Amino acid sequence: MSARNSSTAVDSTLSRIALVTGGSKRLGRHLALALSKAGYGVIINYRSSQKQAEKLAENIAKRGRYARAVRADVSDKVDVATMFASIEQHEARLDLLINNVGNYEPEHLRHVTPEDWDECIQANLNGSFYCCYHARPLLEKTRGQIINIGYAGVDALVANPWATAYQVSKTGLLVLTKSLAEALAPEVRVNMVSPGQLENSIDLPDDLQRAIPLHRAGTLNDVAGAVEYLLEADYVTGVNIDVAGGYRLGGN
Ligand SMILES: NC(=O)c1ccc[n+]([C@@H]2O[C@H](COP(=O)([O-])OP(=O)(O)OC[C@H]3O[C@@H](n4cnc5c(N)ncnc54)[C@H](OP(=O)(O)O)[C@@H]3O)[C@@H](O)[C@H]2O)c1
User: Fold this and answer.
1) Are 71 and 25 in contact (CB under 8 A)?
2) What's the gap in Å between 240 CA and the centre of ligand 1?
């Protein structure tokens, strides 16, 4: 791993700290900003988007809040271990881990290679486990929580030949969510928030009225709302919240 860390500390008394994986852009960026507004210092994990991650940390710091950008490829065990060592060193606490990395590269199963398969499972599922593994001791101390970002409808067992590895990774992530919720209770809560078709989706259906019962794509704020609910939901663990307007309620 590159040991690069860009710290924009403005306050040495760190209260609550959140780590968002893949936090420099799109949904991860939005969640980092929402968490900052909610009073969390944020650690913005990135893999290659250094400029965006550092810019985001600077913007948050300009508002008088704590943020730090840290590079790690979550699919790499050593990178993840090094990232958490840097958290021990810099923030010395963690209250929330959001496993937001979830690479989606639609390809028909007939054309998916073993390399494609490994890459997807490694980042989306194994990488989330690596982060949970290292976050656990920190979260146990703060009675913190983990929120995994899923994909709507993964609690139904359905075929998905255009995104099989993605579907398997997110279904596995749901099983991991529920298993960790039981295993880490009562100290750490573990839940999942699953968007359906967001406004920024790379394959938004043409006919949203037909595809989505609530007749619109989801916004990043819709997802942030569910995350914010879980922050204070002290008696909720092991659940998946679809934030999808009813998308895929009946399967694919
Ligand atoms: N967008 C949607 O419509 C939608 C719908 C349903 C579910 N979701 C879920 O929502 C989450 C976010 O989706 P998104 O579309 O906003 O994200 P995205 O564009 O797919 O990726 C966000 C960031 O993830 C980072 N990333 C990818 N692989 C990484 C790795 N191995 N290690 C560290 N960072 C890595 C990338 O960072 P770098 O740029 O630094 O490489 C990228 O900026 C995902 O879990 C996705 O499955 C999204």
Assistant:
1) no
2) 19
d(C-alpha 59, C-alpha 124), whole Å: 28
**Whether the CB of 77 sits within 6 Å of ligand 1:** no
Query: In ligand 1, which atom is closest to the CA atom of 100?
Result: 45
Q: Is any ligand 1 atom within 6 A of the Cβ of residue 2?
A: no
Q: Does the CB atom of residue 171 touch ligand 1 within 6 A?
A: no
Tell me which fold the domain 5-243 belongs to: Rossmann fold (3.40.50)
pLDDT tens digit string along 18-66? 999 999 999 999 999 999 999 999 999 999 999 999 999 999 999 999 9
> Is 118 within 8 Å of 40 (Cβ atoms)?
no
| pLDDT per position as a tens digit, 187-239 | 999 999 999 999 999 989 999 999 999 999 999 999 999 999 999 999 999 99
